[in-house]
Design a protein that fits this description.
Elements: H1 3-18, H2 22-48, H3 52-76
Helix pairs in contact: 1-3, 2-3
Length: 79
């Protein structure tokens, strides 16, 4: 994992932790969905080019964003 990507994930996680309003949550959710869409396009291209190492790297990044999506869902559910 490159450090820039990991810093981005840490920032998003911090924003999620600090999010107090529905609007803040929706903003984070929107950013994560856009990143997932972008990565989905990239992984499709990697598979089309038979670049399986690149596809593996992208899928790993997608897993990080998937984890954030799960945290968003959990935060939305009142306990």
């Amino acid at each position: 994992m490159d450090t820039q990507f990991l810093m981005e994930i840490m920032e998003i996680n911090e924003k999620l932790t600090e999010a107090q309003s529905e609007a803040a949550m929706k903003e984070i959710e929107s950013v994560v969905r856009e990143k997932q869409k972008e990565l989905t396009d990239c992984v499709s291209r990697a598979f089309e080019q038979d670049d399986f190492e690149k596809a593996k790297e992208i899928l790993t990044k997608m897993k990080y964003f998937s984890n954030i999506e799960e945290k968003i869902k959990l935060k939305k559910i009142p306990l």
